[in-house]
Amino acid sequence: MKVLIVDDSPVVRELLRHIIENAGMTVAGEAENGKQAFEQAIELKPDVITMDIDMPQMDGCEASRLIMENQPIPIVVVTATYSYQDTALAMQILETGAITVLQKPQGPGHPEFEKDAAALVSTIRVISDIKLVRRKPRHGKSNHIAGYITKSRPEIIVIGASTGGPVALKEFLTKLTINIPVPILVVQHISQGFLSSFCEWLSRNTGFPVHIGEYGQLTEPGHVYLAPDNCHMEIRADKRIQLSNVSPVKHNRPSIGHLFESVAEHFGQRAVAVLLSGMGDDGARETLHLHSMGAMTLAQDEATVVVNGIPGEAVRIGAVNQTAPPWKLAEIINAVFNNG
Fold first, then answer.
1. What torsion, rounded to 10 degrees, do the Cα atoms 31, 33, 34, 38 define?
2. 162 an active-site residue?
């Protein structure tokens, strides 16, 4: 597996080379700015590119756009989160087609080094297998939307996503009716430090009010609430948010499964659960539980998903009513409320 490292800092490039080569992968080349990144992407055709954001001559956003237009290659954004401008630009890079955003690992000896290095290696390996095909989102009405007879009108929508999820979530919310009469709770696995910018990006692009969930907060219809960094989010019967620092579930905190279990406990068949692109299987078993209770359970389809871990596992175990692209999942839900 060949990796192109893009970063304007020689120290960071050396650190990333150390991590990548120690994992048995090959560094195809190094670039210190976006112009070099584009040129080397065309020449070297690496399997994966690690992309910095703030660089001289050409930043990571413009470089990623050029690469995705001319030589589509899986890109993982690897950046520090010290500046708000960088985190906002990271969201823009996702819109150009980059797969995910990770925080730059600190040097060896830092308490988070091993965890951050392992996350980088794991992500590179997963996205190296992605065959990028330029797809334009469909904006027309679907020809067919499955009809659902729900046992009771849904009172809450919950969504789980990981790698590849941010853009899918944006596409889903863009097609969801803005006056949906229930709150929307989301667990999106994303590197620490990016959540505030992610919320603003989502709100700006979809029109929904998007918040980071707070303890005791009463959720409102038509509002979106994302689980905070490093904290499980639950929903109570009175639709107030509860946060918890109990142990990670399958290495995840926040955990999709943790949120979905609280929904099963308090809402059962009066819920809609949606799984979007992501690595692993967080939330699949809990989606099956909701499915068995009569809740509507939906998942992004294999044809449009970036990483088919979470939705694919839910489909495999029979936890999902229907799979579809994110825009169509939204239209299915719209139809339920319009016909209710």
1. -30
2. yes
Which residue in the block uniquely carries the two structure tokens 């939705």?
311
Q: Cα 296 to chain center, whole Å?
A: 21
- Nearest in space to 77 (alpha carbons), one of 57, 55, 56: 55
pLDDT tens for the 340 residues of the chain, in order: 999 999 999 999 999 999 999 999 999 999 999 999 999 999 999 999 999 998 999 999 999 999 998 989 999 999 876 566 667 778 888 888 888 889 889 888 899 899 889 999 999 998 888 766 443 444 444 444 444 545 578 999 999 999 999 999 999 999 999 999 999 999 999 988 889 888 998 999 999 999 999 999 999 999 999 999 999 999 999 999 999 999 988 889 999 999 999 999 999 999 999 999 998 999 999 999 999 999 999 999 999 998 899 999 999 999 999 999 999 999 999 999 987 5
Per the annotation, the verdict on 203 as an active-site residue is no
Q: Among the options 47, 59, 189, 291, which is catalytic? A: 189
Tell me the CA distances in angstroms from 316 to 83, 169, 222, 281, 299, one per residue in order: 41, 22, 31, 11, 11
Residue tagged active-site, from 281, 282, 289, 291: 282
Closest by CA to 275, choosing from 191, 164, 174, 199, is 164
Residue 282 annotated to the active site: yes
Instruction: Please state, in angstroms and rounded to a whole number, the distance separating the CA atoms of residues 52 and 168.
Output: 23
CATH topology for 2-127 is: Rossmann fold (3.40.50)
Beta bridge partners of 156: 271
Task: Look up residue 33 and give its DSSP letter.
Answer: S
The full set of domain ranges for the chain reads 2-127, 156-339
Please check whether the two domains, 2-127 and 156-339, share a CATH topology.
yes
Q: Which of 162, 191, 262, 277 is catalytic?
A: 162
CATH architecture of 156-339: 3-Layer(aba) Sandwich (3.40)
Helix (H, G, I), strand (E, B) or coil at 212: strand
pTM: 0.87
